[in-house]
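Hi V.,

You were right to ask for the full record rather than a summary. Here it is.
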Amino acid sequence: MFDLDRFQEIWVTITRNKVRSLLTGFGVFWGIFMLMIMLGAGHGLERGMLKGIDGFATNSCFMGSNITGEPYKGFQKGRLWRIHNRDLELLKEFVPEMEHVSPILFGGRGTNNVVRDEHSGSFGVRGLNANYTAIEQQRMMYGRFINDIDIVQKRKVCVIGTAVYEELFPAKGNPLGQYLRVNGIYYQVVGVASGVSNISIGGRPEESVIIPFTTMQQISNQGDVIDILAATAKPNQSVKVMEEKMRKILKTYNSIAPTDMQAIWGFNLEEQFNIFKYLFLGIAVLIWIVGSGTLIAGIVGVSNIMLVTVKERTKEIGIRRALGAKPRTIIGQIMSESLVLTSIAGLLGLSFGILCLYLADTYMLQKAENMFLSDPMVSFGTAILSTVILLISGLFAGSIPAMRALRIKAIDAIREE
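Predicted structure:
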């Protein structure tokens, strides 16, 4: 005879257990999903910010002259001094930590100061050394960069930015060998380049005309004056130590008080890079703490559901104990259920999180190339580590209910109603 009441009781129990398991599994799913999203967003934020200095040597510094802030050796406060070529040679001689040093000069940017035939535009002009590419990388579209022969012979050649090329050569084509009039003087184009980073020293490289700094010194009638010095340190050498020695040399040979902090301005890219590094280390630690807390909440839910399961199956476990079931069999059953529930929910959360990050990365590449987030993905090692943590958590979640199941005595379980 079909017992409808018993069937309904069994169906309610099964449904209740399924709903309970789904809700508990969702807690684990959400925990690992949020951990992946936060880790990916943190990585994307780091890549987006560091992308701004990609192409610049992180072991570099820049400095230039300013008015003095203290009187010294008969000179009054407020004296305007300039860096000269002799300072460049002194730095090469007395600063052994320095690997590359390049002068930077700036030319005028007047209205339509760069002309080719009937085409013209207003662009910045910079005088650079041949080794400047060791400090700021250049992506060459055509030709070459300034070389040592250009510097020594003071050639009237130029490297134009991609924006200059598009403005003055609307028909495209190879511009090498063509002549441009820059601030009234003709230069032959030897290359077309664009900067790699978003940092601009005296203007964006794409909108600049670069000529040999010796040529610019000659045509500007300013002697051997240098506007800015850019330098990189040798491997394993401190940029801060190099910068301090450079300042000391410049002050000594230009009659500037050693304590004058105003006479030389500059910035250390290594220090800025280290600030970013420690900032993102702190963000990563915070993400792991918050994400792990969310995951632990889900694991606690799994442990609780397994405790309820053990309570509901007290009679079954007691009978199995009475029939000779070994402790490891009881433990294996409880822990395997916990591990399966945690693994399925966790791996689904892991996969869905990575899928969402992939879709976000694809969207940003197509629609938002210059956003502050870049490549918001998690590494393979991070995914493996998260999986290992997930499996260990699943075993831990089942260990407490399993120990409770072992404490069930067969005689007491059989008496359970």
